[in-house]
Design the sequence.
């Protein structure tokens, strides 16, 4: 099997051709990280559904074929960054939906629990030249561009292009996930005009995450398809390696951040100032970036550069998308789900879970669900945006009354999270939900950033990827994590984020569709060398 | 000035002779860490009061003279380890009060806010041979053994022996602290028969901590004595170096722990088993230790040794006291107050604050004050002892349904603190205060242990001292911190605890009574070499 060119379709190996891959527009802020990825050159027809069942969320990935990008949506796509759509429950996010100029909308109804009309899976039977031609297509269920049939099945066989689709469900409501997959399989059989039993023979579920073990029987007995369990860490790493090749998938705070914090203001307060003109030259930014006003950390160049420790109000900086991705190994992957796993990945793809912490997304959501009226993640994040954590946090200034400069501490830094809450004598104060939310968001993010940094330093890694469903494109979280990394590393390491952050495991499970005897790594490495 | 022997008293340098030092019995569990330290050989008469004002607590240290250990107390000392005294508000603690056989009780009323009749400060005037003899002693205010006077003031001058006394106040109630000091000064003047103004001339306040700056004017203007501000970190380190020389001050979990976890049971559950006989030979334990039954982690010697990650129910192990202390540098000091400071100390005593975290004592008390009915630290700790954190925490077993053994994780390990609390749809559960308390105590302790370990590893330090007022001799906290260090370091590093954990800064401030021109370090180093 030649590994140097995208080979002719083989049932055994998935060579995922990511050339020309395009991230589709988001449908709503809720599904911000579930945008489809259109792969115009991908040839292999597959019918694999990957499911990654974690502590809180079950993530589903599946591929549907179409030669052109999905066109006019049946539901108007919501622009996540459009401030006119903002409301209490829609946190402002770093949404690049303005940027993906080439993609058009997808057809989908919003919300993962509704059946998405994203196309259908392809049954294996269509690959065989002698197969019967499909019966009349059902109207209204498909894009008109999807699955254009011709009598020559050979054309179908080599018909490139299709989309990776992403769905999310609550693990506590795993039945909804199973029902969705069931409906997908049944609809696909219908659309392709094949009996359900045949459709099922060509469908395989790749299950990973803890729930792959917990729910193995459920999937198997309800869906009547083959279910394969895949190792969670291996899937995470495979997913990372794959997804970082998609243009505009990876993003980070621009280099202006480094420039600006290298010349901090002498006084703790910050005021607005224009971007230093030289800084923009540092950032090769062919893709448009979203810029925010930069508070004045410039000036005082005579002062020794001191990086601002993660402070109550991190400045807001431009986001840069990695539009020409290159191989990203070695690196550290910090997967923030209910809990946190920290995995080091070597240059050759070998990996090891080296650390973790139990203080993760589950901790923050759990604490805020008891301490505030918020009932959803986005409500909690919305609260945090309005809060002033200094009413609950003890700052360096509260203890010392001045900077503790020779220790590199500033009076605005957080000395003790929630340090102002306990009052002797049992007097229980009441604190605004917004302040509590901000304090705990900072606390969890700073802590994860610190532990992540220490591991990156230990293993001499400069790139730190943050995965998992915790971040949700939320500006303050991204800022805090970026700051923590830059503070501790003095700007030598970089925090990197992923638009499909929560789907690393499921993407990895999806591409691991191989015979045990085949070398997947060879194929992926070949893909890497083609692109670099 | 000769540095090789305890020199003749000089007004400029305190040579603190710790030979024969004895930690006095505790008065009550509340003041467990405030036991006096009797120094029978200490010669220098001083009138210095050290105050360390932190974010939550103000700690006071002062020395009073007496040639013999304080005898029969005016208030019967409570034995903290006596289970018959246990109640909801008295957490079981590792209290070594049974062990200090030689000391007798101290006279004191319990509670820091009551005026303690611990003796009096010595005015400088008594040092001068031509000073007038003191007038009649006031009865009922003194121990009969305290301050035996003779006409020959020279005898007074070289009269060895006295006690270091410790008091604690709330920083929010700093006036109580000031009043206490005022009363101490006034009483001392009275007892010594000198005018208040003369007494004040011989009293100096050494103030450290953040509050040294905040409350400088308050101290100065109310007490009318000289107030000197001392650097907090320097005081912490000085205090550490000094206090670790006191016999039975330092304690740690015995080496049986290392032996036992090196041969873990194959199954996650643990059952009681007798101590391995060989293990006791590892521990040179001239002082009595308090032993607890050792759960069975022995057996399965064929298995690769895996250290139990901090689990919901850490086994309980014997506590060993360092009765023949040796110099303890280099080391890492982890000071857990409202927040956490991590300081590395080199062999020569040079130190640097290298890290810290805002998730400290203030965080735990603050969270528990809002999430439980508890109104005091000890109530919160009592709750935690009864709790089952698995109702609120997501364990590895909850996610995977089995051990994730190849990652070194066991199903009983905590994957996500509070991971079970958030329910989609806004349904807010109620959880027992005990379970919440245990979960958050573990979370904070494990996190501090992990960050402490990473710093110890980075700087190649094996000894990790935990200071600050957070631990309070609480068994679960000590166990969790010890476990975290041993888990991450695979048994190569040791967590060490201090009975006067909260007083490092104030002790350090107390011994820093020197002229700027004098080298304190030389004196202390000489003291070290004498003892080793």
Sequence:
């Amino acid at each position: 099997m030649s590994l140097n060119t995208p080979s002719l379709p083989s049932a055994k190996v998935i060579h995922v051709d990511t050339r020309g891959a395009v991230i589709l527009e988001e449908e709503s802020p809720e599904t911000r990280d579930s945008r489809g990825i259109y792969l115009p050159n991908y040839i292999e027809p597959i019918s694999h559904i990957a499911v990654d069942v974690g502590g809180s969320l079950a993530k589903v990935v599946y591929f549907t074929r179409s030669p052109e990008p999905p066109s006019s949506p049946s539901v108007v796509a919501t622009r996540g960054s459009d401030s006119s759509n903002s409301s209490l429950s829609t946190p402002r996010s770093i949404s690049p939906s303005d940027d993906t100029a080439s993609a058009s909308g997808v057809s989908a109804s919003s919300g993962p629990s509704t059946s998405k009309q994203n196309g259908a899976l392809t049954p294996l039977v269509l690959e065989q030249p002698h197969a019967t031609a499909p019966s009349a297509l059902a109207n209204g269920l498909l894009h008109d561009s999807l699955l254009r049939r011709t009598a020559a099945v050979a054309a179908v066989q080599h018909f490139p292009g299709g989309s990776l689709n992403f769905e999310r469900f609550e693990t506590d409501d795993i039945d909804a996930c199973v029902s969705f997959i069931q409906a997908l399989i049944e609809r696909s059989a219908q659309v392709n005009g094949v009996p359900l039993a045949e459709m099922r023979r060509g469908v395989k579920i790749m299950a990973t995450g803890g729930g792959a073990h917990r729910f193995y029987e459920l999937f198997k007995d309800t869906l009547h398809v083959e279910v394969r369990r895949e190792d969670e860490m291996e899937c995470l790493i495979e997913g990372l390696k794959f997804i970082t090749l998609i243009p505009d998938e990876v993003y980070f705070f621009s280099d202006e951040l480094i420039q600006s914090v290298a010349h901090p203001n002498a006084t703790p307060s910050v005021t607005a100032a224009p971007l230093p003109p030289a800084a923009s030259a540092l950032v090769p930014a062919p893709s448009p970036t979203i810029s925010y006003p930069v508070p004045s950390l410039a000036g005082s160049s005579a002062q020794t550069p001191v990086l601002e420790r993660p402070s109550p109000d991190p400045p807001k900086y431009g986001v840069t998308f990695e539009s020409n991705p290159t191989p990203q190994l070695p690196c550290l992957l910090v997967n923030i789900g209910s809990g946190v796993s920290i995995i080091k990945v070597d240059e050759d793809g070998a990996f090891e879970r080296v650390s973790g912490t139990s203080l993760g997304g589950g901790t923050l959501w759990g604490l805020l669900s008891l301490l505030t009226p918020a009932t959803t993640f986005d409500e909690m994040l919305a609260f945090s945006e309005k809060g002033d954590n200094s009413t609950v946090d003890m700052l360096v200034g509260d203890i010392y009354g001045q900077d503790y400069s020779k220790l590199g501490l500033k009076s605005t830094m957080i000395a003790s999270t929630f340090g102002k809450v306990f009052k002797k004598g049992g007097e229980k104060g009441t604190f605004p939900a917004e302040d509590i939310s901000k304090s705990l968001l900072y606390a969890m993010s700073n802590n994860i950033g610190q532990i992540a940094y220490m591991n990156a330093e230990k293993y001499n890694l400069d790139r730190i990827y943050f995965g998992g469903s915790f971040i949700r494109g939320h500006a303050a979280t991204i800022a805090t994590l970026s700051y923590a990394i830059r503070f501790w590393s003095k700007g030598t390491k970089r925090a990197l984020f992923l638009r499909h952050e929560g789907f690393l495991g499921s993407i990895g499970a999806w591409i691991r569709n191989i015979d045990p005897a085949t070398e997947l790594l060879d194929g992926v490495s070949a893909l890497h060398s083609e692109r670099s």
